[in-house]
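Q: Got a minute? One more chain.
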Amino acid sequence: MKNLLVAALLSIMLLPGAFAATEGGVHYKTLDNPQPTDAGSGRVEVAEFFWYACPHCYAFEPYLENWLAHKPKNVEFKRIPVMQGYAWAKPMAQAYYTEVALGVVDKLHKAIFDEIHIRHHILKSKDDFKQFFEKHGVSGKDFDSAWNSFAVAVNMKRAAKEESAYQIMGVPTIAVGGRYTATLVAGQGPPDLPKAIDFLVHKVEKGGK
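A: Always. Here it is, folded:
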């Protein structure tokens, strides 16, 4: 539980190395070095940096799901599990990309959050996650194959690079268009982040104006 408290404190830290601004009640930062995204022409990438053991990420999840159900059609969304600075970050990130490889994100993403934050069972190793995946209908053989796959290894390496490039110091952090980031600041709660996402998507669409 001590690590969860640390995560709660880290999740409201401001990010260094970027220009901070407030417009329309939205707190955000402009990256010194804009990052490439996977979004096609005329589209905007929104990425959520998260950690399964972060209580603020868990609290934000239903608001994020609601936003995803109504997001603009030109928005491409992806999740990026953090790899640095947190206990058990790497196995939790590997578990997420194992879900992706197996096509079970819709089934297991929320279930892992619930297991940690409702049942207080911290999944922190390959064996922990293998038992959890098997409990939810994934064979041990399929789990091992995905966990050790080249695709998962590539995604893990890319996630670490993106975390560094975006200078992630707390979660949840939302990156928009490879140019802006927003996270919780003092006095804000998870319901405030969707407003920041919409604001920054619109800002990207207007060319930063």
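A: The two ends are 43 Å apart (CA to CA).
Q: Perfect, thanks.
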